[in-house]
Design brief:
The structure is a homodimer of 181-residue chains.
Chain A: H1 28-51, H2 56-67, H3 73-80, H4 84-96, E1 100-104, E2 112-116, H5 118-141, H6 146-157, H7 160-180
Antiparallel strand pairs in A: 1-2
Helix pairs in contact in A: 1-5, 2-4, 2-5
The structure holds a DNA duplex (30 and 30 nucleotides).
Chain lengths: 181, 181
DNA sequence: CGAAATATGTCAACATGGCTGACCTAACTG
DNA sequence: CAGTTAGGTCAGCCATGTTGACATATTTCG
């Protein structure tokens, strides 16, 4: 099993299971599985969105507004990491078609705080339900702490610079949601 | 800290750690982390590609051809799940600029088997190196079996229909690579 | 052998969703 | 009041996905 032709000094532990990770060899499996998993993760939602005349960009906006009602446009731009022109295009359609509404900020009247309508929430929850079913099914095939393991792995893949913001967003949205329910 | 206003009847086991997963509540954290993780996972490579005048689509083609030298066009289409017209556009550029070459199949002369050139391999390995660094760093922050846990989670997210094919692809490419080295 | 199936390539047109650059209004802040 | 900030908008470009139609070479099968 050990590669006897390798210089002894570079001897290396097996990384996981029986897959030996040779020195400097890319971590092919995770790289590729991120592609395959993400590809399949989004397609189901895409199919539903297509029936509404929406695309993936609409989904993202709707998702994050639903998760964080009253969020500012600037916050949404920061999460999506796109330009306000790109956001404007899809946001306008969501507003025009009654999925999202904008309310003037109470303190700062320049702000247009974003909220989903009942219709918007319904679609957002439907899409979240599809993705949840996939994730729940996946986690159910794995061990009892698979959720925590997956969460920690994904957080560690996020840019160090963004990590704090991402975790803060999730925690804040969770907290707000618990209060509402 | 506990939400004392919540109705007692809906009390639910904690799913993982201290995050209570209520009945029918979407698995927000994993859904969102897949978005954030994937977003950050690809941007570094995108930046390098931009300097070469390439995009994410070129990356995928180059990556999979590098991983599976001699693969058929049809196999690549099946992996990427795009149309041959979409593939054709980027493949042509990669061939014209000397990153990929096509060889007539020995058995079936209709086939155009795909190989990376030295130049193509160099770029593919550079990009894989960037992504590997991110993954390796992430895994190093986690426990010793994090690689296996991440792998199993990602495989479980893949469509059941595709799972076998994906695993076969990875195993085949790994095997071929080991033989070459 | 000849017909049909297969592997691949290509043209044209279109949709989505990124981007830059320029410019605008309304409202807040010092 | 001057300058900054939050947000919107117009115009145009680019990358990458789609459909549909069709062409060419090669293999396979009756």
């Amino acid at each position: 099993m050990a590669d006897l032709t390798a210089p002894a000094a570079t001897d290396q532990k097996p990384a996981s299971g029986d897959r030996a990770a040779r020195q400097d060899e890319p971590i092919w499996d995770i790289i590729e599985l991120l592609f395959f998993a993400y590809r399949d993760f989004v397609t189901e939602a895409d199919d539903v969105l297509a029936k509404f005349g929406f695309g993936r960009a609409h989904h993202r906006v709707l998702h994050f507004v639903n998760r964080n009602p009253g969020m500012k446009v600037a916050e949404l731009l920061d999460i999506l990491k796109i330009t306000k022109q790109s956001l404007g295009r899809v946001l306008k359609q969501l507003v025009d078609q009654g999925y999202v509404i904008q309310k003037e900020g109470a303190n700062d009247r320049r702000q247009r705080l974003l909220y989903v309508t009942a219709k918007g929430e319904s679609l957002a929850m439907k899409l979240a339900g599809l993705q949840t079913a996939r994730v729940a099914h996946a986690l159910s095939e794995l061990g009892p702490n698979a959720h925590e393991a997956a969460r920690r792995f994904l957080v560690a893949i996020v840019d160090a610079d963004n990590r704090e913001g991402v975790l803060r967003f999730i925690a804040r949205a969770d907290r707000a949601r618990r209060q509402r329910s």
